[in-house]
UniProtKB/TrEMBL annotation:
Keywords: Membrane, Transmembrane, Transmembrane helix. It comes from Cocos nucifera. This is DUF2232 domain-containing protein. Pfam families: DUF2232. The keyword Protein transport does not apply.
Length: 300
């Protein structure tokens, strides 16, 4: 059937009345070669039932138009005050965005290193051998990026230990190492004298140790401070009896002796931390950020 219709379309107009004598002769318009139709032969005309004119294809964006659009966009950005250029400048090595991102990444890395080192040391029972290095990441963060960065590093480390080991280990880290590292890093950041720094850090360490004793007493439901007082009293009484002194020390004397020994222990520990961290940070290239005593500068 489509073949018959195609042949009818290809016939000349004069032969149409012969096929359909009762119909009215139709004269179909001749279409040009670029119209939609069928070309039967060179002598016949191109006939079609419908003449469809296709519009000329025009791209929505030309190359010249794209160039003008880009140029116009640049003029608008410059006209707005160079906001985009300033945004690109912030991503540079000296930009504010780059520095904030670098500070965040360094704080996260130092917190993870400190938390994992403390967790593994407690798990392997080697905390006494590496206890001097648990405060170092907080000190580095405080010296490089300020007091807020050191505080964030300490809190992030505590949160990591809270997730890995529970609240007891996290609290122990804060009392025994975290607060000391934050105090030391803050004082070194402010370039405080070493004598003042050692005294303040010793007090902070002693307060943290007492807090650790109270926390342990609460957890085991036993007054550890009372036990320490009783043992010191008994030891001091035996010493005085061996020396031939018939005297029983009072509770105030025992507390004074206990506090003196605690401050002495914390003072030696803080002094060791100051020397160890000063040497370590000097080897890392942060000597310009430190305020060292003259004898230590000559030794290093």
């Amino acid at each position: 059937m489509p073949l018959v219709n195609l042949r009818l379309l290809c016939l000349r107009p004069a032969s149409l009345p012969q096929l359909f004598p009762r119909s009215i002769p139709l004269s179909l318009p001749e279409l040009s070669s670029n119209s939609f139709g069928l070309n039967c032969s060179s002598s016949s005309s191109s006939l079609s039932l419908f003449a469809i004119s296709l519009p000329k294809f025009q791209p929505r964006v030309s190359i010249s138009g794209a160039g003008k659009h880009a140029h116009k966009k640049e003029e608008e950005e410059v006209g707005d005050g160079g906001g985009t250029l300033m945004a690109y400048e912030d991503l540079g090595a000296e930009g504010e965005v780059f520095r904030k991102t670098l500070r965040l990444v360094e704080c996260a890395m130092l917190a993870s290193v400190s938390g994992l080192a403390y967790f593994l040391s407690n798990s392997l029972a080697i905390e006494n051998y590496f206890g001097c290095f648990f405060s170092l990441p907080i000190v580095i963060s405080s010296i490089r990026w300020g007091l807020a960065a050191g505080r964030k590093t300490m809190v992030a480390t505590a949160m990591l230990l809270l997730t890995l080991s529970g609240p007891v280990k996290a609290s122990t880290y804060l009392l025994m190492h975290g607060v000391v590292g934050l105090a030391m890093g803050s004082l070194w950041r402010l370039r405080i004298n070493w004598g003042v720094s050692m005294v303040l850090c010793t007090i902070v360490r002693a307060i943290g140790a007492i807090g650790y004793i109270l926390l342990s007493s609460f957890l085991i439901r036993e007054n550890i401070l009372d036990l320490i007082t009783i043992n010191v009293h008994a030891s001091l009484t035996y010493i005085l009896m061996d020396m031939g002194v018939n005297m029983i020390p009072s509770i105030d004397t025992i507390y004074a002796i206990f506090g003196s020994l605690l401050l002495l222990n914390c003072g030696f520990f803080v002094f060791l931390l100051h020397i160890l961290y000063a040497v370590f940070l000097s080897k890392l290239g942060m000597r310009a950020s430190l305020t060292l005593p003259h004898w230590l500068e000559k030794a290093i």
